[in-house]
Amino acid sequence: MAYLPLAVADHLLWRERAQPLPFRLPPAGPAFLHDAAFLHDDDERTPGGKLKLHTVWISDIHLGTPGCNADLLLDFLKPIQPEPLYLVADIIDGWKLKRGWYWPPRHNDVVRRVLKMAAKGTRVIYIPGNHDEMLRPYAGLAFGGVEIALEAVHTTADGRRLLVCHGDEFDGIVLYHRWLAWAGDVGYELLLKLNRHFNRLRLALGMPYWSISAHIKKKVKNAVAFIGRFEEAVAEAARLRGLDGVICGHIHSAEIREFGGITYMNDGDWVESCTALVEHADGRIELIDWAEHTRAAAARQLAFAV
After folding, report:
1. pLDDT class of 306 with cuts at 50, 70, 90
2. Would you say the C-alpha torsion 58, 147, 131, 101 has a positive or negative sign?
3. Above pLDDT 70, what percent of the chain?
């Protein structure tokens, strides 16, 4: 595997003055680091105090779009040090960048955070998807310690073998009707714009982040039916390959469920729900809803202040 040195990769990113956060994070700090429900007996900390996690999966960050919740993602990444970190595609939104350039300093901060994690020993595997498909020809190479792969098979600490893929290969609209996928992406972008204005109003009222777009999607019958068919198709692909389960992204719908003995897991996104999948030292995998725990931390801080 060919590598591009970290110093070279870092200098490909221009340096801009950091801007103030667009919303307030609770001063209580990362919620799950202080919540017994998220800690496990075998979890350790690095000498620097970071929580050592066996594996972390995140996807659908959509850097290059206004909808990306870069601040919440940075808040999640800074206190952890996983052994491997899987970036399960749509990390950079090439579709949106083709329509117009948008790249604020906080998006640079996310890239630098990932490069820093790689430099400190985390194995970072980047699996491109449909929005960052321009990176697929570079599969087998590594840039700044970040490996590019089309898919992966991950073996958990308890011996399960899991397919790791983005999931767009199971989406007929993306595969066969790209114009419809593009039109849907434009409509989705308008929904996310509504979501941003809605959360600015919540911020003005002293309320934490809540995704109205994710709420609407869960209430639309056709969206629910599509998600169900997608989950079944991805789980079946893992079963046909003799694997124990699958981890994917793509549909922005975080989930862990069983399909006939196959464990289907979706790590969600960092545009609407702000979720990740985390594996502990014993192989236990759980879904972290970072937006929910940020809201809970804010509520605890408010209760304490009262």
Report:
1. low
2. positive
3. 71
* CA torsion through residues 49, 53, 55, 61, sign: negative
How far apart are the two ends of the chain, measured CA to CA in Å?
A: 56
- 92-131 pLDDT per residue, tens: 999 889 989 999 999 999 999 999 999 999 999 999 999 9
DSSP letter assigned to residue 20:
P
**Burial class, 174, CB count within 10 angstroms (exposed 0-12 / middle 13-18 / buried 19+):** buried
Mapped onto helix, strand or coil, the DSSP state of residue 53 is strand
Spatial neighbors of 247 by CB under 8 A, at least 6 apart, are 57, 86, 88, 154, 162, 163, 164, 165, 265, 266, 267, 277
- B/e letters for 224-258, b = 16+ CB within 10 Å, e = fewer, are eebbeebbebbbbbbbeeebbbbbbbbbbbbeeee
Which pLDDT band, with edges at 50, 70 and 90, does 192 fall under? low
Report how far residue 96's alpha carbon sits from residue 75's, in angstroms, rounded to the nearest whole number: 25
Structure tokens given for 151: 């898919």
What is d(CA 229, CA 133) in angstroms, rounded to the nearest whole number?
Answer: 23
Q: Which two tokens stand for residue 81?
A: 């040090």
pLDDT of 193 higher than 60:
yes
Give whole-number Cα distances, 186 to 189, 193, 214, 218, 271, in Å. Answer: 5, 11, 16, 19, 15
List residues bridging with 91 in a β-sheet: none
Question: Residue 203 is encoded by which pair of tokens?
Answer: 């911020």
Distances (CA, A) of 172 to 179, 234, 238: 12, 12, 18
